[in-house]
Amino acid sequence: MLATNDIHKKTMQQIANEVGIDIRTIYRWKQDPDFIEYQNDIAEKVMTSFLAETYNILRNIVRGSDSERNKLRAIELVLKNQGRMTDVQKVEAKIEDDRSNEAIDAEIERLKKLLGQI
């Protein structure tokens, strides 16, 4: 109940009454790492089933929406979720180095000597 309370919308007191425990017990449980892990496992399972529902809704939008924009957005979400569509950012970097070849060669030699000392 606690892991899916966003669905049930019950107060902690209502949950305590329904389970037959004192509300303080719930608050103690919420501090227990084992209980937290169990609650997270339950929440993950609920989300997995919710994911199937979400895919069905997206499929219905793609196949049945009158709005081309809605269809494209649904397709984009599905493709991004599957890792088949990513946002691309173009990065350009212009590096200017006005040193001569001789200066660069000298720097390389200096670094090689430093590496040899290690």
Automatic annotation (TrEMBL):
InterPro entries: Homeodomain-like_sf (IPR009057), Homeodomain_phBC6A51-type (IPR024978)
Name of the protein in its database record: Homeodomain phBC6A51-type domain-containing protein
One Pfam assignment: HTH_Tnp_1_2
Organism superkingdom: Bacteria
Source organism of the structure: Heliorestis acidaminivorans
Domain called Homeodomain phBC6A51-type: residue spans: 1-108
